[in-house]
Amino acid sequence: MKLRVLVIVMFAMFSLPVAVHAQTSDADDVKLIFDEALRNGKSYEWLRYLTTQIGPRLSGSAGAAEAVNWAKTEMQNIADTVWLQPVMVPHWIRGSEEDAYIKGSNKKRNVAVNVCALGGSVGTGSGGITAKVIEVKSIEELSQLGSHRIKGNIVFFNRPMDVTQPRTFDAYMGAVDQRAMGPSAAARHGAVGVIVRSMGLNAEDYPHTGALRYEPDAPKIPAIAISTRHADLLSQSLKEDNGLQFYFETHCEMLSDVQSYNVIAELKGSEYPEQIIVVGGHLDSWDLGDGAHDDGAGCVQSMEVLRIYRGLGLSPKHTVRVVLFMNEENGLNGGREYALQAEQRKEQHIAAIEADEGGFTPRGFSMTASPEFRNKVIGWKPALEPYGLTDFSREGGGADIGPLSKFNIPLIGYMPDSQRYFDYHHTKEDTFDKISKRELDMGAGCMAALIGLIDKHGVN
Amino acid sequence: MKLRVLVIVMFAMFSLPVAVHAQTSDADDVKLIFDEALRNGKSYEWLRYLTTQIGPRLSGSAGAAEAVNWAKTEMQNIADTVWLQPVMVPHWIRGSEEDAYIKGSNKKRNVAVNVCALGGSVGTGSGGITAKVIEVKSIEELSQLGSHRIKGNIVFFNRPMDVTQPRTFDAYMGAVDQRAMGPSAAARHGAVGVIVRSMGLNAEDYPHTGALRYEPDAPKIPAIAISTRHADLLSQSLKEDNGLQFYFETHCEMLSDVQSYNVIAELKGSEYPEQIIVVGGHLDSWDLGDGAHDDGAGCVQSMEVLRIYRGLGLSPKHTVRVVLFMNEENGLNGGREYALQAEQRKEQHIAAIEADEGGFTPRGFSMTASPEFRNKVIGWKPALEPYGLTDFSREGGGADIGPLSKFNIPLIGYMPDSQRYFDYHHTKEDTFDKISKRELDMGAGCMAALIGLIDKHGVN
C-alpha cells in the first residue's frame, strides 16, 4: 500500500527532518484508514438506499436484479473496472401469505400462530395440511420414534438454540440442522409436513425463514418455521391436548432458474496487478426483511473498502477486488461460479475476505488459513486492537468465498459482535433501522485495515 | 463463593471418582454464572418496568420517588436486607417545552431548530432571549475573542465530538467541557445566553441534555443544547448571514432540594460478612427519555447480581451490596452520601463496581486500582474472555463510587461496547426499545462473574 508516502508527507508538514526518514507504522496506517471510514464513510447511505429503496433481494426477484444494477452503477464511481459475472440462480417465491393455527380438540378454538415457509419448500396449496403433531428435539429422536409413529403426522422440531453460548453463531450451528435436514428426515418416515422452531434466541412473535435442503431421494413435504413464542405455545398445547391438530397453508413454489449476476469491481494493483485480494458479501437477501444486516451490511462495507482507497488518494500494490455475490441464501451459485471462472481464467488470488455476520461492532477475524498466516495476523493485533479487533482464534471464512479454498489461500471472515444478529436474521425485522452508522463504519474500517495490512506485508 | 460445592455436585452426577477431588476452575465458576444470567436473567423484564411503567427519573421528580419504592420492593425478593438511605437532592425542572429559531436578517424567514435546556440552567422566561450569535470551537477561543466581542451576544460552542476516537467516551470527554464549563465562561465575558452543540456523533435531529456547572462567581445565563444537525445549520447560516440573530425561550428552574434515597440491598457474606463488595448504578435519569441505557441498565444489572446468587442457591463469602445511587446526573449527592455514611459507620469496603456506560455487549472493566489488583484481574482473563471481556487496561471506576476512593479500594467500571451509547445518551431516544436482552444479560453476567471471582480470591 502507498499509505507510507502519504503519511510521510502529512508528517513532514510538521516535522520535516524526522519525517523524511520515518517509516509508517502499521498502527499509523490502520488509523489513517479508520479515520477515513469514520469521517467520510458512505456505507450507511449506500445501505439506506439498498434496503429502503430497493428492499428485499431474494435470488431471481426483481429486487435482486435492481440491486445488481445499482451496485454496478455505484461502484463505477470508486473502481477502475466494474463488470457483471453471469450466474444462473434458483427462483423460489413465497406466494401469498402463510396461514397456520393450532386446532384444539373438543371444540376448543383455533389459535392462529405466526409461521413462514422455509426457503425452497414446496407449498401445501389451497386447503393446506391438517394433521396431528409429533414434537421432537432432534433428527435422532425422530429416527428413534420411527415411521410407525411419524407416518401421516406433522413433525415439529423444537430444540431451542442454546442461549448459554456466548457466541450466538455457535448456538445457531447447534440447532440449524433441524431446519436444513429436518424436512427430508421427517419425509423419509412418512411425515406430511414439518414445523421448525425459529432460529432465534429470544421469545419472539415473528418467524425466521432460511433454506431447507431436500435430499434427492426423499419426498418433498411442505415445511414452515414457527415463531419461538408460538413454538413454546404449541409445545405446551401438545402436553395439554392429546387430540390437538395443526393446520398450515403455504403457497410457495420453485420456478425456473433465472439469469443473474455477481457484481465485481476492482482497483488495479500498482505493483502486483495480477495478484488479487477479494473482499465481498452477498447481494441477495431473504424476502421477509430488507436484508440490512444479512448481508446488505457486508456489501456496502466491501464497497467502502474501495471508497476508502479513493478517499485517501491511495493505490493498493495488489489488485483489490470487490465481489458482491449472488445467491448465498439459497444456492451459493454465485460463490461457485466466481471460483470456477477464477480457475478457468487462471487468475491468481492471494486472499479472500467476506463480511456476512451483520453490521455490528468489531470483534475479530475468523480464518481458514495456515498457522503461519494466522500468526501473521495476530502479529498485527497491536494495530487492530484499539478498534475492537481482539479475536483471531476462530476457524472459518465465509460461505461465498468457500469455493476459493481450492486455491489454498487464506479465507477470512470479518467477525463482528454476534449478540443481536439472531434477533433479526432471516426475519421481517432485518431492516435499516437496526443498523448503527458507527458500527457499520467501524466494520468497513476493519475490512479496509486488514486488506491494507495484507497489501503492505503480503500473505507469506 | 460457594460455587465450588455446587459444581462438584453437578459434576459428581456424571463422574464421581474424579469429581470429589475436583477443584472448580475460575472458568467453570464464570460459566455457571453466565449460564444463569442467560437462561433466567430478570434484568430485561425489570428494565421494561422501570422504563416503560415508571419512565424518566430525574432527581426530585415523582418518577424518581416511584423508582425508589419499586426497587426497594423488587429487591426484597432477592436480598437478605433492603433499606433506603436518605439523601437530599436538587430539584430542577424543565418546565414547558423549549422554543428556538434562527432569525435571518433581511426578512428571511425564521427557521425553527431543535434545542433543550441544559440541566441546571436558569430559564429565559416568557419572551425568551434574542441576540446575535458568536460561534466558537472552545473556551480558549472564547477567551481570545474577549469581552468586547462577546458582550450582549449568545455564544455558540460548536466543537464536534471527534468521530475518529474508537471509544466514544474519549470523544465525549474531548468535547463535554463546552457543555459543563461553557455557560459560566461565556457569562464572564458578558454573554446573554449559550448554545452548545449536542454531545452526539451523528447527524441527529434531537438535542442531548446534560448538566452544566455554574461557577459561584459568574452570572447565571440560560443555556441550551442544539441538535447536531441544527448546529451545522446554524454554523452554515452564520457564514451566510452577517445579521443573523437567534431566539430561544426556556422555562426551566431550580426548585428547593427534595428528600430522596439511595436504595440499598445486600446478601450477607457467609465467611466475611463485615467485608463489603459494592455493585451499583444510578437510579436517577434525565427527563427526556426513559433512562434505559443511562442508567436503568446498570441498576437492573446490579440487581441481577443478587438474583443470580439466589437463582444458583449460592452465598457469597463476603457481603455483596447493591447500591442504586440517586442523583448521579445533576449533583452526585447519592454517591457522596453513601461514602460519608460508610465512613461514619466504619464499614469495611473491599471493592466497588459500577455499571454506567449502557447495556451493551461486554468489552472489559476499567479500574482505578493498584497495579497488583489490575494484574489479578488480568490473571482472570482466560475465564472472562469467552464472554467478550478483553480490555482491562483503562483507568476509571464510576461517578457514584468515586467518593469511595478515600477507602483506597479498587474502583471498577463495567465497560460495555461504546459505539451506540452517544446515539441515545441524555436524549429522548434513550428508551427501552434500544435495549438488546442478550446484551443486557451478558452485562449482568460480567458484573456477577467479576464479583464471584473477587469473592473467591479476595482483592489482595
- Overall, the morphology of chain A is elongated
Number of helices of chain A: 15
Largest beta sheet: strand ordering of chain A: 3-2-9-5-6-7-8-4
Multimeric organization = homodimer
Q: Count every beta strand of chain A, where a strand is a DSSP E run of 2 or more residues.
A: 15
Succession of helices and strands of chain A: HHHHEEEEEHHEHHEEHEEEHEHEEHHEHH
Please report the distance between the alpha carbons of the first and last residues of chain A: 16 Å
- Model regions low in confidence, pLDDT < 50 over at least 5 residues of chain A: 1-21
Strand content of chain A: 15-25%
Helix content of chain A: 25-40%
- Determine the structural class of chain A based on helices, strands and strand pairing: alpha/beta
Mean pLDDT of chain A: 95
Biggest β-sheet of chain A: count, sense, barrel? Answer: 8 strands, mixed
Query: What is Rg of chain A?
Result: 24 Å
Tell me which protein chains meet in the greatest interface and how many residues each side has: A-B, 27 and 27 residues
Overview of this structure, please?
Chain A is α/β, with parallel strands linked by helices and 460 residues long. In chain A, 37% of the residues lie in helices and 23% in strands. Chain A contains 15 helices and 15 strands. Chain A is elongated, with a radius of gyration of 24 Å. The relative contact order of chain A is 0.18. The model of chain A is unreliable at 1-21 (pLDDT under 50).
Short description:
Chain A has helices spanning 3-19, 26-40, 43-54, 62-75, 139-145, 147-150, 168-173, 177-188, 228-240, 292-312, 333-344, 371-379, 381-384, 421-424, 437-457; strands spanning 81-93, 99-103, 110-112, 115-117, 129-136, 154-157, 193-197, 223-226, 245-249, 253-267, 272-282, 318-325, 348-354, 362-368, 411-416. Chain A has 460 residues and is an alpha/beta fold.
